[in-house]
Amino acid sequence: MIFGNAKFLSQAMLPAALQHLLSRPELSLEALQAQPDGRYELEGDQLFYMLSTNDTRPEAELRNEFHQQYLDIQLVLDGVEGMAVGPLLADPANYAPEKPDLYFTEDAHAENQVNMKTGDFVVFYPGELHRPLCSVGAPAKVRKAVFKIHKNWLAQSTWL
């Protein structure tokens, strides 16, 4: 997991390919804030992002999730979101996806929480447990971007 803020990308120590991706002018915080909610493909299913407005909920009402094929970069565009995080799973192959590359688990716990505000982002690598959309205080609206980066895209990137 990597935590950072979009206004200070160079301080996040991102891998070069992710640094280059998030440095693109059309993917700046301001550019993303101006786009409507929806799915945007950059390189088909290998690299895309989704913009959405959601309601945060009490952490106890949400489930832990992880992915095996995609890295997530979750960036808060407006509002505040709690993100519960946990350890790598010992053997993610023991789980079945509920949706393509979306796994839920009740037997491992995301026990640490990061409170994210506008501009903050977190990078989750495959197998890293997280529970997004946790309320910080009372439930509220949060608008965010979620970048989905296939691990093969990252491995083959010329920006490494």
Description:
With 160 residues, the chain is mainly beta. It has a single domain (2-156), classed as YhcH/YjgK/YiaL (Jelly Rolls). 12% of the residues lie in helices and 44% in strands. The chain is built from three helices and eleven strands. It has helices at residues 16-22, 29-34, 151-156, and strands at residues 2-5, 38-43, 47-55, 64-66, 70-78, 80-88, 103-105, 112-117, 120-124, 128-134, 141-150. The strands form three sheets. A six-stranded antiparallel beta sheet has the order 1-9-5-11-3-2. A hairpin with a 3-residue loop joins strand 2 (38-43) and strand 3. It is globular. Pfam families: DUF386 (PF04074). InterPro entries: NanQ/TabA/YiaL, NanQ/TabA/YiaL_sf. It comes from Tolumonas osonensis. This is Biofilm protein TabA.
Structure described in brief:
It contains three helices and eleven strands. By secondary structure, the protein is mostly beta strands. The protein has a single domain, classed as YhcH/YjgK/YiaL (Jelly Rolls), CATH 2.60.120.
Give a quick account of the main beta sheet: strands, pairing sense, barrel closure.
6 strands, antiparallel
By secondary-structure content and strand pairing, the structural class works out as mainly beta
The CATH first-level class comes to Mainly Beta
The number of helical segments is 3
Major beta sheet, strand line-up: 1-9-5-11-3-2
- Percentage of residues in DSSP E strands: 35-45%
InterPro entries: NanQ/TabA/YiaL, NanQ/TabA/YiaL_sf
Protein name: Biofilm protein TabA
GO cellular component, one term: cytosol
Pfam families: DUF386 (PF04074)
